[in-house]
Every structure is written in structure tokens, then in C-alpha cells.
Amino acid sequence: MKTSIKYICILFVISSILSNQNVSNANDTINTTQSLRYGATLVSSGGIFELGFFSPGNSNNWYVGLWYTNISQTVVWVANRETPLRNRTSGVLTVTEPGILVLLNDTDSIIWSSSNASRVARNPFVQLLDSGNLVVRDGNDTDSYLWQSFDHPTDTFLIGMNFGWNYVTGMEIYLSSWKSLEDPATGDFTFNVDPTGYPQVFTRRGGVIMYRIGPFNGLVFSGAPDVSNDRTFLFGTQIGENSVFVRGDAIERSAISIFTLSTTGVAQRWIWVNQSTRGWVLYLNIPSDNCDTYRLCGAYGVGDIGEFPVCGCLNKFEPEDPEGWTRADWSNGCIRRAALNCTVGDGFLKYSNLKLPDARDSWHNGSMTLEECEVECLKNCSCMAYTNLNISGGGSGCLIWFGDLVDIRVLAAGGQDLYIRVASSELGINNEAYDKDFELPFFDLSTISKATDNFAIKNKLGQGGYGPVYKGTLEDGQDIAVKRLSKTSKQGLDEFKNEVICIAKLQHRNLVRLLGCCIQGEEKMLIYEHMPNKSLDLVLFGEIFAAFKSGYMSPEYAFHGRYSIKSDVFSFGVLLLEIVSGERNSIFTYGDRGLNLLAYAWTLHQERRSIELVDACLQNLDNSDQMLRLMHLGLLCVQQHPDDRPNMTSVVSMLSNESVLPQVNQPGFFTETSTPSPESNVSSNPPSNSTNQLTNTMLDGR
Ligand SMILES: *[C@@H]1O[C@H](CO)[C@@H](O)[C@H](O)[C@H]1NC(C)=O
Ligand SMILES: *[C@@H]1O[C@H](CO)[C@@H](O)[C@H](O)[C@H]1NC(C)=O
Ligand SMILES: *[C@@H]1O[C@H](CO)[C@@H](O)[C@H](O)[C@H]1NC(C)=O
Ligand SMILES: *[C@@H]1O[C@H](CO)[C@@H](O)[C@H](O)[C@H]1NC(C)=O
Ligand SMILES: *[C@@H]1O[C@H](CO)[C@@H](O)[C@H](O)[C@H]1NC(C)=O
Ligand SMILES: *[C@@H]1O[C@H](CO)[C@@H](O)[C@H](O)[C@H]1NC(C)=O
Ligand SMILES: *[C@@H]1O[C@H](CO)[C@@H](O)[C@H](O)[C@H]1NC(C)=O
Ligand SMILES: *[C@@H]1O[C@H](CO)[C@@H](O)[C@H](O)[C@H]1NC(C)=O
Ligand SMILES: *[C@@H]1O[C@H](CO)[C@@H](O)[C@H](O)[C@H]1NC(C)=O
Ligand SMILES: *[C@@H]1O[C@H](CO)[C@@H](O)[C@H](O)[C@H]1NC(C)=O
Ligand SMILES: *[C@@H]1O[C@H](CO)[C@@H](O)[C@H](O)[C@H]1NC(C)=O
Ligand SMILES: *[C@@H]1O[C@H](CO)[C@@H](O)[C@H](O)[C@H]1NC(C)=O
User: 315 and 274, same structural domain?
Assistant: First the structure.
């Protein structure tokens, strides 16, 4: 693999590179009264490039061409590639009045001409520049060219050239191979930018795609070697409204470096080495190996040159034709193990280290985030994958694919992430992490997005410590509350899964129901039942209800996102204390020490004055022992350490018998500042900011 991706070999060593051409009377320009014939050449002012007549190999045909002055065997541009001269002494190269470069034979017939000049020039002349660009200019106009050979390359890309499309003029600049080493006429292969969908570069043979690099990811064409450290040839891409161009540039401009398309369709980068071994050194090849063959592994197949056989299926996919697969016929590609069902909802799996699939059938947006990109893709049932448009600077923009994903391969280096649509059943929350009987519905991101009006501000119920909470309505009319974990949430996937399991286990008709969750890509959401008009809080506290969102969250969850069964025990304890006292924990404060309900209840309990906190209407009944027991039990449930809190089995048992209750420790969120905190990370006096944020995280009625 290492050698196949980027290898270096000496292709050939030129024994004699010095030209026999007569350059003593060389100029870099010719005007309308001058001409160039065999025996004379144009030489660029710095002596780097030379233009003259040449005949390749053993051919009897003659051409006007361009080469490095000191490497005459390597012709980098040919004028009359389709119309050779039979007689070297008969050709005359000159420039005509309107500004057209022409090659005439001895009967003054035009053998070849540059395309028409963009405008009529008064004093046109031809000049060979040190970049290797042969230009037609007008008199003293140094700003623009009437024509340039850089717009009409043959098989060689030089530093400073652009290739690609100008949609306004309809002009395309691309490479085309020679027919053979002895015939520079247009061969079978082209190497060009294809702007369909999102720009990519294709090598085609007779119009049929052979190899592909791209789409351009902000740094390189996906699948092309990373050339960012290449000082002698840098590729940059300019994607404008009216054009898309790839430009070759260099930091080390003194190096002789070219990019060619061979007669067999291999795109190659060469560097001239002028040390003891003088010659062109091959720097890179496209294709680099068999896995670069376009569509080698079919749809959803993935090439991996380090594997045997080289074709496999993407995870969650299997060969469509398993029998053919064993015969190395991979053309049928792979199919999904589990069929998509867009109406029910699909999701995305992240695949890494890939050369991105063919993006001719794609859509892009430069300003979207990856999350918005996912939502965009989910909206369309034929959208099969998405990823960032630009991977530089942490990633930005959105690129989404429609239809089957083809021409994917694994890359040892420089691969990208791709989020591929799969059936929701394929989206593991890692199954073994869950109880066998754990069955919680998965919601599709698009469903939730729709229900919340794409997470509209007006539907935001509040901002929790771990992200915003939205109100929404499902298509069947069910009201939901969506807790959307922010990316910056301290709660990781494990904690989230843990919470999901715990809440799912605690489903109860008197608790707000967890309807399901949504885990897609980077999104993690919990979907709860939302019933503001029927909830317990309304029964308890009537219309001031809007402020009622707080006070039930356990400290370990509030501060660390650690959710356990004991977190719900805490909430239950708060509720119990509220019922008995008739007070709300969220707004209750007592005395100048600002004790909250839990702290006050604990203080009274220690002073054996708990009865003072019992709601007046309950005190009238002859059940004060029961009330004190409930108060004690409530305090047991809200102890700071989760381990100290009883489990619900014990709570039920303690509620239904008269056993002696255990000693109670300090509750969580004890707000008396002087009280030392048993758990160093849990502040006994949380900053008001976080308290406010955290309180909203707890959903209504829990
Ligand atoms: C080179 O130019 C000189 C002077 O113009 C001329 O005498 C000579 O024949 C030329 N040599 C060749 C090889 O063309
Ligand atoms: C080169 O240019 C000089 C003056 O600029 C001119 O005298 C000479 O004839 C030119 N030579 C050729 C080969 O055009
Ligand atoms: C072309 O160049 C030659 C040499 O510099 C000069 O004598 C001649 O006047 C030029 N012709 C035109 C049309 O500029
Ligand atoms: C070409 O070779 C000649 C003779 O060795 C040398 O003087 C000249 O500098 C070389 N030109 C370039 C551009 O390397
Ligand atoms: C090539 O052209 C020269 C000059 O026009 C002529 O003398 C010669 O006969 C031609 N040779 C052939 C093979 O046509
Ligand atoms: C010059 O070119 C014309 C047009 O291609 C052709 O008909 C003619 O035979 C050529 N003359 C010579 C001497 O090659
Ligand atoms: C050049 O222009 C003339 C007249 O406008 C036109 O007939 C000819 O086809 C043009 N040639 C090219 C190569 O565009
Ligand atoms: C360029 O040439 C035009 C006419 O040929 C002339 O009017 C103009 O002054 C020249 N400009 C310069 C900067 O030489
Ligand atoms: C390579 O080096 C030789 C000898 O130093 C020199 O003559 C020649 O011009 C050089 N070639 C290039 C392409 O720089
Ligand atoms: C998608 O799922 C729904 C509900 O289970 C079912 O009615 C429908 O037939 C499914 N569609 C496909 C294409 O499987
Ligand atoms: C609940 O706690 C009691 C007492 O600590 C223990 O014996 C029992 O096993 C626990 N039940 C569960 C389901 O954890
Ligand atoms: C409170 O939160 C706001 C908004 O997040 C922040 O700008 C401010 O600095 C915070 N204040 C404190 C004391 O943390």
C-alpha cells in the first residue's frame, strides 16, 4: 500500500539533453513583419523555455512545440498537434494583423492558427514567457493577452496554469493525451474538471470515466494525494459563480516540475532532478493503484488496497451478488442489510477514512453546519449521505449525495468522514449495553425537526445545563418536550445512554413519560411526553406553574451529567417533601441564610421540629406520625450521595410498613454556605447562573 500510493521511480534518464538548435540569434518575440522557421527558435527572456520545430521519435512529421531549453526531449505544448508538417523546412510561424498566430506552409496555406483573437490588435506580437506561456499581445498592452497557450494545453500542466471551466465563455481548459509517443494528436484520454454536482476531476477514455478524484474538500480533491507539503507544485481550486478552476502553483519556483497525462491515461507528476542521475522523477500517479479504478467495487462497495480481495461492502451492507463477489466480479456492488423506510425514519452512520463517493448527483451549501446538513439530508428520501463541504478549519458547509453511493475507497491517509443513511434499526446504541427488555423507540431527526418547527425559537421551553428544551407536536397530535443535548454538553454518550436506560426503566404513569430518544450523528435528544395542562405540577401549584421547572434535579446530574436510578429517587424525595409541606422547592427560601426547602426540612429534622413544615391542611388530620415519617423518607431520598439514597423498592417498603427509618445525611443542594461539601466537585452553593440553567433542564412534572 505504501509503495502503491506514492512511489518514486526513475522513468527514464536522458543521455543527451542539450539541444542542437541554434539559439545564438534567439529572441522571445516575433511581430507581424517577422517569422520563425526551422533552425531558429524563440527563447523566453530567462532562457527557460524554447519554442521551435520538432519531430517526435522516429516520426517524419514536424510540429511547432515548446520545451524546457535544456530538456528538449520533453515537449510540453504542441501547436499543430492534429496537422503536422511533412517538410520541416516548409513551415513558417508568424502573427497576423488582427492578432492571430498562424503556421503557414510554403504555399502560404494556413496549417494551424490560434483561435480568433478576442479583439483586433493594432500592433500584435507573439511572446514566449518564462512560465512556458506563449502569448499574443497588443503593442504596449502589458495587462492582457489576445491569446495564450495556457488556455489550450495539450498533455502537460505547467505551474501557473488553470484548468477547468469558464461558464460565461463556455471555455473549458483540460488535458488530453497524445495518441502515442510519436504522435501528439489528441489521444483517447482526457483529464478534466467536471463541474456537475460538485467539482471533481475525471480521467476519461473516449468519454468513459476511468478514474476520479474529488470532490474538492477545501484542501485537496478527495482521494488525491495530499500535496499541501509539496513545494514544487501546489494545486488550488477556485470555485466561483461563473467558473471553476484548478490552479497549479509553486513555492519553489526554481524547480522544474510538470503534471502530464500519459498516452495510457495515467496522470503523473514529475520533477526534474539534475544531480548525478539526471532525469524526470515520477512523484505521483493517478491512479495510484487498482482501487482507483472508477466504480471498481460497485455501489456501496468500498475498495481497500490493503485487503484481499480489495473490494468489500460498507458496514451494514452486503454483496448484492455474493456468488459474483467470490469471482472478483464486484460490479453489482452492495445492498443494505436492512431496507430504508423514509416514512418511518432512517438515520445516519459515520464512516471514516474514506475517499468520498462520486458527487455528480449532489447538492451543496457553503454556510451550513454539519447539523443543518443532516437535517437537510433527512428531508429528502433520496439523500443518501452528507458531510462537511470543506474540511479545513474544523469543517464547514454541507455536501449531500443523492442516489447510490459509488466509487468509495478506504484511504490510509487523508480520508474523510461520511455520514451514510441507514435504516433506523441499524443505528445501534450499542446493544449489549442495554437490558434485553430495553425497548425505547428511536425517533428520526426529521420527525423531531418537523415537530419542533426545525427547533424554532418560539418552541423553546428553556435552556438547560446540557442544552435547550423544545416543545413540539408530533404528526399524530401528541405534544412532546425535546431535550436536545448541546454539542458542548459535558454529558457524553455514555452518560446519555445511561440516562436513557434509567429513565426508560422508570416509566410510570405518574411520571412524565419518556417517549423515546433520537441519536443521529452528533445529535442526542430525549423525547418526553409534554402535557402542561394535565400535569401534576398544575394540580399542586395552580397557575404560577410557568416558573415550575426546577428543584427536582439531583446534584450529581446537575453538575456532572451523571444520571442514575438514584437521581430519580432524589426527584421523588423532593416531590414527597413538597407534597407534605405544600411548598415548592424551586422558590422556597427560609430565613436570612436563604435555606431552600431541602435544607430547611433537614434543619428542622435535626432539631426534631419537622412537624412545623407540614402543610397546615395536613396537620389537621390525626396523622402527624405519618407526616413525620414521610418527611424523613423524603429526606432519605434527597441525600447528597446517590449511594446513601434508598432504592425505590426500599422506598415502597418503607412507605408500607412501620420499620425504623435509617439515619439521614445532608441533602444535595444544601445552600447553607458554611456547610462543607462531602463531594469536592459538588458545590454546596452553586453559582446562581448554573442553578438557573440547571433548573430548566428538569422537565415539567418530573
Ligand atoms: C546558427 O546560426 C548561425 C548564424 O545565424 C548560422 O551560421 C548557423 O548555420 C546556425 N546553425 C544551425 C545549426 O542552424
Ligand atoms: C531578434 O531581435 C533583434 C532586435 O530586437 C533583431 O535584430 C533580430 O533580427 C531578431 N532575430 C530574430 C531571429 O528574429
Ligand atoms: C518588428 O520588429 C522589428 C525588430 O524589432 C522591427 O524592426 C519592426 O519594425 C517590427 N515591426 C512592427 C510591425 O512593429
Ligand atoms: C541551460 O544549459 C546551459 C548550458 O549548460 C546553462 O548555461 C543554462 O543556465 C541552462 N539554462 C537553464 C534555464 O537551466
Ligand atoms: C521541402 O521543402 C523544401 C523547401 O520548400 C523543398 O526544397 C523540398 O523539396 C521539400 N521536400 C519535400 C520532401 O517535399
Ligand atoms: C500546404 O497546405 C495546403 C493545405 O493544407 C496543402 O493543400 C498544400 O499541399 C500544402 N503545400 C505543401 C507544399 O505541403
Ligand atoms: C474566426 O472568425 C471568423 C470571422 O468572424 C470566423 O469565420 C471563424 O470561424 C473564426 N474562427 C475560429 C477558429 O473561431
Ligand atoms: C500604447 O500605444 C498606443 C498606440 O499604439 C499609444 O497611444 C499609447 O500612448 C501607448 N502607451 C504607452 C504607455 O506607451
Ligand atoms: C543540469 O546540469 C547540467 C550540468 O550542470 C547543465 O548543463 C544543465 O543545463 C542542467 N539542466 C537543467 C535542466 O537544469
Ligand atoms: C415503512 O414502514 C411502514 C410502517 O411500518 C410500513 O407501513 C411501510 O410499508 C414501510 N414501507 C416500506 C417501503 O417498507
Ligand atoms: C434495594 O435496596 C435494598 C437495601 O439496600 C437491597 O436489599 C435490594 O437488593 C435493593 N433492590 C434493588 C432492586 O436494587
Ligand atoms: C452567567 O451566564 C451568562 C450567559 O451564559 C454569562 O455571560 C455570565 O458571565 C455568567 N455569569 C457568571 C457569574 O457566571
Answer: no
